[in-house]
């Protein structure tokens, strides 16, 4: 389809091209708007702005579609692993057996931290937030790799990506160990990605934690489902930083900072806090739900509803199944999980939630899964970051590989004071 968009301004009309994506999404290309008309567009929060063209992830919120590089996440969840999905997201195709083997070796080779990078941990106070540690340590990684500033070919890029994906897991587990005052646990070469993370989190020097296949599978799914979600806040941040030519690690460290905010990575924490609140208040679930529904109530059922997915969140379907399977095999007795089950049941049958299309979202089930795994609350967003690293790298790569890439530099509409004179100190 080829058509244009006509804009009338001050009695003149201008035509701008309408561009079409591979899934028939349409956009008005306003790149020449300011040059031609002197006007800019204003779009608070970027809700109507396509900030880039990207070939990584496709979302259709109305139909509950999420695909990485064209492949539905349902197929990836059923057949793939986090490591394979990460490779797909970054390189745009499924890895061959040789790619898989090479990448696996790179991940194993890079799973340890440089001993002096390790000593950075000693500089953090014991109660430091693991997200602060994660972002600082990812940035610090670039000090140990002079080559990271000039990635000249795909071999170097693959090595840098493997380092980041592998070390993020080691740093994440180490930041937890620091926060509970336990010695850091070294990774093992015989464990796969998820098993190794669980080992570094939960083993102690005199007792090895042995991850069950159900728990490792649930973690794999959690990470796969968080691997990318197109131009969300942290990914846009990574692209913004990358557009200045900053290196992969610096750009991803900035992504961690953006993800830290409660409006982005913190919703699964809010789910567990809500469950805890219900338990401590002694209220039953029906009472809490009726409070949420009350007219003028500011309370929301955390983990329900989504800005983009209005029929269902495809990630939550997959995680629900995984959480049911994992919990069935774990024999856990946790009052918060009981409250979660009751909430889910009540809300799925209640007309208030049905009419407003409020279904449990990915954060509802990820909160439940992470809690059941024994992941402490302040590590939830770190887990999200571990999953999102491949998406950040893929977006960084898109900018890095694009010879036409320009620095991201939005405009603004100035609404401050007009011209006024400086007042000397003695006259103020
Ligand atoms: N509990 C109770 N009522 C709700 C909820 C909820 N969780 N979400 C929306 N509503 C009601 C809202 O009060 C409004 O009702 P009314 O029409 O009577 O005024 C109606 O539903 C529409 O709400 P909205 O605010 O226009 O919906 P939105 O698309 O702007 O908000 C949301 C989406 C995710 C911010 C919201 O559903 C919410 O706050 N959910 C709880 C927080 C949460 O779970 N966030 C994680 C989202 S998934 C993150 C990710 O994809 O990474």
Helix-residue proportion: 40-55%
Estimate the mean pLDDT confidence: 93
SSE pattern, N- to C-terminal: EEEHEEEHHHHHHHHHHHHHHHHH
Helices, by number, come to 18
Overall body shape = globular
Protein model, in words:
- This protein is mainly alpha-helical and 428 residues long.
- The chain is built from 18 helices and six strands.
- A three-stranded antiparallel beta sheet has the order 1-2-3.
- Strand 5 and strand 6 (71-72) form a beta hairpin.
- Carboxymethyl coenzyme *A (CMC) binds next to helix 17.
Question: Which short descriptors sum up this protein?
Answer:
binds carboxymethyl coenzyme *A, mainly alpha, 6 strands, 3-stranded antiparallel sheet, 428 residues, 51% helix, globular
Topology:
Elements: E1 4-9, E2 12-20, E3 26-28, H1 33-37, E4 57-60, E5 65-68, E6 71-72, H2 73-79, H3 82-91, H4 97-109, H5 115-118, H6 130-141, H7 154-179, H8 193-202, H9 213-225, H10 233-243, H11 248-260, H12 267-281, H13 285-293, H14 314-330, H15 335-349, H16 351-355, H17 362-373, H18 380-401
Helix pairs in contact: 3-9, 3-18, 4-7, 6-7, 6-11, 7-8, 7-18, 9-14, 9-17, 9-18, 10-11, 10-18, 11-18, 12-15, 12-17, 14-17
This protein binds carboxymethyl coenzyme *A.
Carboxymethyl coenzyme *A binds at residues 267, 292, 300-307, 356, 358, 361-363.
State the gist of this model.
By secondary structure, the chain is mainly alpha-helical.
């Amino acid at each position: 389809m080829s058509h244009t968009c006509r804009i009338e301004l001050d009695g003149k009309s201008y035509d701008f091209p309408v561009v079409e994506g591979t899934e028939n999404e349409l956009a008005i290309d306003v790149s020449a708007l300011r040059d031609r008309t002197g006007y800019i567009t204003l779009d608070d929060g970027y809700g109507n702005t396509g900030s880039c063209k990207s070939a990584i992830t496709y979302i259709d919120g109305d139909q509950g579609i999420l695909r990485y590089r064209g492949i539905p996440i349902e197929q990836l969840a059923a057949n793939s692993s986090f490591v394979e999905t990460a490779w797909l997201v970054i390189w745009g195709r499924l890895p061959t057996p040789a790619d898989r083997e090479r990448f696996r070796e790179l991940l194993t080779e890079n799973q340890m931290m440089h001993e002096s990078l390790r000593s950075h941990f000693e500089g953090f106070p014991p109660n430091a937030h693991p997200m602060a540690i994660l972002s600082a340590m990812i940035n610090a990684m670039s000090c140990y790799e002079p080559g990271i500033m000039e990635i000249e070919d795909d071999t170097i890029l693959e090595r840098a990506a493997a380092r980041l994906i592998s070390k993020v897991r080691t740093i994440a587990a180490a930041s937890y160990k620091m926060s509970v005052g336990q010695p850091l646990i070294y990774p093992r070469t015989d464990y796969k990605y998820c098993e190794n993370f669980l080992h570094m989190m939960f083993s102690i020097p005199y007792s090895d934690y042995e991850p069950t296949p159900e728990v490792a599978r649930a973690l794999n799914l959690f990470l796969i489902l968080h691997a990318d979600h197109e131009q969300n806040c942290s990914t846009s941040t990574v692209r913004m930083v990358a557009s200045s030519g900053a290196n992969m690690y610096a750009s991803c460290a900035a992504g961690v900072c953006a993800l830290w905010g409660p409006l982005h990575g913190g919703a699964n924490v809010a789910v567990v806090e809500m469950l805890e609140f219900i338990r401590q208040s002694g209220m039953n679930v029906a009472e809490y739900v009726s409070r949420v529904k009350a007219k003028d109530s500011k309370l929301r059922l955390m983990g329900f509803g989504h800005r983009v997915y209005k029929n269902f969140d495809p990630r939550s379907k997959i995680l629900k199944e995984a959480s049911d399977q994992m919990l069935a095999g774990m024999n856990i007795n946790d009052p918060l999980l009981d409250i979660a089950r009751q909430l889910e049941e009540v809300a799925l049958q209640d007309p208030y939630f049905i009419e407003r299309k409020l279904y449990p979202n990915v954060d509802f089930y990820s909160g439940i899964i992470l809690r059941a795994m024994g992941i402490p609350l302040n590590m939830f967003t770190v887990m999200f970051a571990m999953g999102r690293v491949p998406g950040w790298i893929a977006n960084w790569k898109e900018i890095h590989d694009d010879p036409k890439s320009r620095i991201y530099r939005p405009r603004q509409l100035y609404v401050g004071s007009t011209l006024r004179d400086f007042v000397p100190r003695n006259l103020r």
